[in-house]
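Handout, page 2. Input:
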Amino acid sequence: MALVTGVRYHALLTIETEEATARASAELGRIGNSLLPLLVHLDAPTPQVMEQALHDGAPGVPPALKTLQWQVGSTPLAVLNHPLEKADAPAWFSDYLAIQPPQRQFTQRLNDGRIGVLTVTLWPQTLENQIWRTLVVQSRISALNMVTILLLLTLLLRANARMLGRLARASNQFKQGHLDTRMAVSGSLEARAMASAFNDMATKVQSLVHSLRETQHLQSEQLHFTRQLIDALPLPLFVRSARGESLDTNKAWRHLFENPGPGPLNAVAGNELPGSGRSVALQALLATHAQGSEIQVHPVNLPVRDMAYYQAHFTTTDGARAGIIGTLVDVTERKQVQEALRAEKERAEITLASIADGVITTNQAGHIETINEAAQLMTGYTTQQAVGRPLQEVFKLHEKPLNLLTASDPDQDTNTPLTQKATHQVLIHRSGERYAIEYTAAPIRLGDGMVAGRVLVFRDVTETRNLRQQISWHARHDALTGLHNRNALAVRLTHAIFMAHSQGTLLAVCLLDLDHFQAINEQHGVLVGDRLLKEVALRLSAFVTHSDAAARMGGDEFALLLGDMPHPQAIEERLLQLLEHLSQPYAIDDLTLHCTASVGVAVFPHDNTGSDTLLRHADQAMCQAKAAGRNQLHFFDVRLDQEVQTMHSRQTRVAQALHHNELRLYYQPKVNMRTGQVIGMEALMRWQHPELGLLGPHDIFPEVNDTDLIVDMGEWVLREALAQMRVWTRAGMAWSVSVNIAARQFHCSNFVDRLKEILYGCPEVSPRRLELEILESAALEDIQYMHQMMKKCQALGVQFALDDFGTGFSSLSYLKRLPAETIKIDQSFVKGILHDPDDLTLVSAIVSLAAAFHRHVIAEGVETQAHCDKLLQLGCELGQGFGISPPMPAQEVVGWVDGYQRNRDAAADHSASSLPLNESLHKT
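Output:
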């Protein structure tokens, strides 16, 4: 305590000294800075003047001031002394502090260049007085604190004494057995905390004492219960100490062995042994046997029994072995059952050896007990290798291990039947070979219904399964391409519609038709066509994703389902990629084939209809894609559907017109404009509608150009034209007749055969007088195919003309490869030769091109004499058009020709060749 106080006051004196010194330094600065400017202006300062200046510069003379000294240059030193005030601090305190008088010099340069020095000195006693007063105040405060602390300690000790007394009294009462003793929670904070702690401890001790008493009671009850339980056990049981002393037996043991009687024990214990001695001797005998060993014993008044001996060691609480507990289990009936089972097993093995199906039996643990010859062949394991192994090691299935339920399975559902049947399984032979099998597994039950094991019967159904799979595959796939067929597509489409509806995405139902596939099939053969279909199927299969599906509808038509599409633009982008992919060349053997496709698309749920309607709408859109030029896609819409329905109605009406003989052939003459000779006719179709009157080709062909009906109509035109040529031939007029052939008809595989058949039907007409007109644009689609077909037809004697020449992208090489005898200049160019220099140049070039290739050339659309004259100037002598004659019925042709010849002869006689040709016609 004294050391702490000393350190404290030493630190206090140090701090106060430093603060007093700092204040003295500040005071020196203040005095010097206030006096120095005043002293500079005094010539000869005296102490009185300096004191006056001190009063003027610093009001109130500082009590700590000791001396002021002022000297300018070498002038005498002026000194002002200030007396010391009364010292408060004792002398010993001043000696202890030993503070030197604070002093500070100030210098100032005067106007005349001299330097004035002011020295200010303070009394150290003033600083000592300040420190002493502070120390006295702190001492008084410390004394007051010590008195307060002693008072508080006294009060605390008295309170603790009272608290300890209360604790001692409560403890004594608790020791005397008053477990409900509690301390009153009152007084100071510590007293209350101690009382609460004592009360908690007393409560816990009281609870532990009560628990101990209950435990002792329960142990007593447990011992009584254990005694009753042991006596209630049906198995005979004995307890033997580690030293070999018999400690206890249960009621069953005493009943069996503690009455004297004859038996095998007599040889060990003697015939005269009492019951207790017999029991002890039997225990000693059993202690020499191993765990689970079987012996024969002779209980009192019972025949000899087969029993199994089991024992278990028991220990003391510290883990030391205290003895054994032994028991006997009667296994007489079990051994009898085992013998019966063994005999039954032998009979079963003989029976199973003769069964063709594989049979395996297991025990309750699932280990194989028997395996017949058929099972050995299918698993690859012999009897020696299989017996004792777990069933899963021998009977290995491809997908998952076999799990045979048994009645002893702890987690088995009570409602689950123990008999298992399975089909469509694959058994793996030990060599790795696989067999398709069917199996049945059933429990092997004892007479009391207990399960003793399992029997597994299986057969090889590989051939049957392969045949079933082939039938199933062919029922859902196209045999040629391997894609889904119509039936499988219907299932996939129904599912795709459901997924699109539930996920809120778009489903694109697309139908694809290969462009001009029939021509490829005819040109290169069916085998090449089939190869091409397979290649297309491969590209479709590579294109589709997990949410898509591809199928072949038949022929060259395929279906494609694009699922999980976010918007129509994504559908269009994917289909454009597909079209680009399908348009790439196909390498088949040594051939390089080019084939494109037309795609029709119906989008669900924009087109919120059923699956059949979606396919029909996609088919309609595909027809529109073909009509628009092929190698493109077309989306179905409702307005288009109405138009398609209207078109189908019109197509039906045109078909009815064909079958009801409402169609007519009109003939437009083709003449030599220079000589006036009629060289032939062009057969043009008209429709004698019963209600609308005579309709032109624009009311007929747009509806049927892309249908098979155009083929029937084309054949009808050929027959009618040849029949009319036969009539004219008999009348002596051997005109040639040109017939327009549609591209679809020309690409039919049997076109040449059909043409030959039609020609043979009119033997009176020379085939050379029949001219087939094909559009230049159609001819340019497949030059090689057109060349071969034209050659085959020309071999029959038929002539060819390229119609509307100049409207396609023809070139010299194309014209050279197309063996047409005649070129027909399109009327759109002929009409413009009088006022359009480009048309004039184009017609002139075509005429020159025809002359260079030794082809005939004829102009369509000759409307006036001026057209006739201009064409003659260009070298084109043949023409046809309304300026010469409009198309007319066959019965009017002969009369028109006669009149035309007369008018031409009359015009020549009167030199009126300049008369417009159409005016001369109008006179006929």
